[in-house]
Amino acid sequence: MMRILPAGIILCFSLALPCHAVLPLIVNTWPFRDATATAWKTLSSGGSVLDAVEKGCSQCEIDQCDGSVGYGGSPDETGETTLDAMIMNGDTMEVGAVGDLRRIKNAIGVARAVMERTKHTFLVGESASVFAENMGFTTEDLTTNTSFSIFTKWLQENCQPNYRQNVSPDPSKSCGPYKPHALPQQRRRHQLIDIHAHDTIGMVVIDQAGHVAAGTSTNGARHKVPGRVGDSPIAGAGAYADSTAGGAAATGNGDVMMRFLPSYLAVELMRGGADPSVACKTAITRIKRHFPGFFGAVICANTTGSYGAACNKVPGFSQFPYMVFNQKSNVPIQETVDCI
Question: What are the binding positions for substrate in this chain (predicted)?
């Protein structure tokens, strides 16, 4: 007798797919439950996958998720908090992104405005902020007591740790200005890792019809060199979406991860038939081959509703938590994956 399953549930045993294959689906990095719930509410109330990604990520911007997303976190070397974000439409392959955004709290909203209100893909720095102001976004101070305290403590500790290398500070000022010196470059691959010092919400949303969108939002690396932009707003690095295959998003040390386009790689592997978990592991392994001590993780989902994640195992980080919401769970569920 033929068994009739509810719409969106795949006969996974006959297709050799994991039996969590259900649509619609929302997957996002880290245990940011409210962001997941907001995205699901948006989608279930008739919003598009782009709406769901934008609202979900903006919830994290409002909540200052883990101090690593939104205003009031990760001050740079001058004490200023700046934001990076991107959003991608997997149907049209359009992307909107902003980097080094100042004075505007809703970074993912500005990224979507870049996608829908310009023919460009990526705006950065002060010009991105002026664009946002012209589009009606409210200007606000992104500094808080918390971010100011982080910055002050860093100054008191002689501006350590920082992201400078092969430079020396002015002898009278331990925190610079910096000048290059003649020592050979040494790669700093074995630093103590603070997972809160560079982090992101990355989200993938797939609706009942298989439309895919992905997005990211972050305040970047704590104590970064002013002007630094990480992997989060770069299509294929921070996130990638293609409605013929699926979506992926990354989190972690963006200065390393952006060099390998892990989100793009994962989606291409899923296009070729790889299970999402395998696609994520392959993307992580590719980076690990060159930077074994990097901190990072990738989430993946394909257009059947299968999903997975992978992370690199480093001291103090052996499991990666991420959120899932589909009709099977009917609530935001935190899942974890063992790092490799």
Answer: 228-231, 251-254
Residue 55 is encoded by which pair of tokens?
């609202």
Helix axis angle, 49-63 to 107-117, nearest 10°: 150
pLDDT for position 196 = 55
Q: Is 70 annotated as a binding residue?
A: no
Q: Is 204 annotated as a binding residue?
A: no
29 is in an annotated binding site: no
- Please identify every residue annotated as catalytic: 200
Read off the pLDDT of residues 110-158 as tens digits, 9 standing for 90 and up: 999 999 999 999 999 999 999 999 999 999 999 999 999 999 999 999 9
Tokens matching residue 221: 């690396």
DSSP string, 267-303: HHHHHTT--HHHHHHHHHHHHHTT-TT--EEEEEEET
Please report the domains of the chain, with CATH numbers, ordered by start residue.
12-70+84-90+199-338 (3.60.20.30)
How many whole angstroms separate alpha carbon 34 and alpha carbon 114? 26
